[in-house]
Amino acid sequence: MRKIIATLLIGVSSSAVMADDHYYAGFELGATKATDQRFSNSPNSGLRLGDEKKMGLMGGLYVGRAFDKWRLEAEYAIRTNSYESVDFANGSAAGLDNIYYNADGSQKSSALMVNAWYQFAEMGEWKALVGMGLGLADLEVNGLKAGGTTLVNDGTWSGAGQAMIQLVKPIKGGLEAAIGVRHFRTFSDELATIAGTSKYKSRHNEAFVRLSWRFGEADKPAPVAEPVRVAPAPVAEPTPARVETPQVVEEKPEPKPVALPGPFMVFFDFDKADITPAAAAIIRDAAKAFKEHGAVRIMTTGHTDRAGAESYNMKLAERRAAAVRAALMAEGVRANAIITRARGEGSPLVATGDGVREAQNRRAEIVLSR
Predict the structure, then answer these.
(1) Is 12 contained in some domain?
(2) How far is Cα 204 from Cα 185, in angstroms, rounded to an integer?
(3) Taking residues 250-268, what's their average pLDDT?
(4) Are the C-beta atoms of residues 339 and 299 closer than 8 Å to each other?
(5) How buried is residue 229: exposed, middle or buried, by Cβ count under 10 Å (0-12/13-18/19+)?
(6) Which residues contact 41 (CB under 8 A, 6 or more apart)?
(7) Is residue 163 one of the residues assigned to a domain?
(8) 137 exposed, middle or buried (CB, 10 Å; 0-12, 13-18, 19+)?
(9) Same-domain check for residues 332 and 189
């Protein structure tokens, strides 16, 4: 039961300090497959045909804000696919036979979307996000030809929607890389064809990569330590002197308090805030010393090595300090007696250059005080 409680406390504490708040902007590139669609003017005598398109390219720009596990962004993206063939169900309306034709021309959409993303999982340095978007798209069919005849050359604005999933990983210099997949579609609208207007829409299945720059990250104020309150030492009453034979009473010096044990060192794996079995044993010793030696406060300070961005390391140090705090509470230490703080990569135990991994610096220090 104690281990279960400790695990829950560590999870809640870690979620609290991992709250993200920053702006970001970037670009994306990908491959897009436009699914086959149909033009149909009339059920009896109008033009009716199905199209097939080649794999195309998409690219876009976006800007947004991340807060906690949510991201809200504006995106502008362009998709282009060339036509490969058309298959007529009724080509007589265009003066063509009902056969398969190789086709020329292209389909292009320029979309302005508003996207909402939610982080539903975290795997080491990777974050998994799912998202949906709504907006407007300028859909164009440029010079669709078959058998030397131009069938469609028109464009229209239409509503659009998309569903997405991506994996995001922070990299050095405040950058973020991502890979993902998306389904994009426009809603049905009318285009002019050689034989009148026709309902038409576009649908795309695509894979993309993104590169983002994080900026405007909110700094967290350092936690304020509570003042240590020391109980005043009892004043000994003087021994009354006898008048007949006055005596000088020697004042015995008060005994010096026994020094508190510590500091206790808890070490972590690279880029982790999980309590290992060895760390759990040290935390138990610290909690036992706190209770047996009459300590009033216990401070846990999180540290990291110098691999990774400084802002990321500060948050990682906060997670480590919070994890140790939760484990101390699971060992019976009062919550209001524990103070946490984070130093990030600013106070290494072993001096290293920037970007160097050092196991001795991935630690949390536990200090007892009266």
Answers:
(1) no
(2) 6
(3) 79
(4) yes
(5) exposed
(6) 47, 48, 93, 193, 195, 196, 197, 198
(7) yes
(8) buried
(9) no
The domain that holds 78 is classified in CATH as 2.40.160.20
Asked whether the predicted pLDDT for residue 124 surpasses 70, the reply is: yes
Range of the domain at 280: 264-369
Over the stretch 279-329, which tens digit does the pLDDT of each residue have?
999 999 999 999 888 888 999 999 999 998 999 999 999 999 999 999 999
Residue 19: per-residue pLDDT = 45
For residues 145 and 101, give the distance between their C-alpha atoms in angstroms, rounded to a whole number: 9
* Tokens representing residue 293 in the block: 């030696």
CB atoms within 10 A of CB 88: 22
- Apex 248 CA angle, 243 and 253, nearest 5: 140
- pLDDT higher than threshold 80 for residue 93: no
230 in a domain, yes or no? no
User: Does the model's pTM come out above 0.70?
Assistant: no
Dihedral sign of CA atoms 225, 226, 227, 228 in order: negative
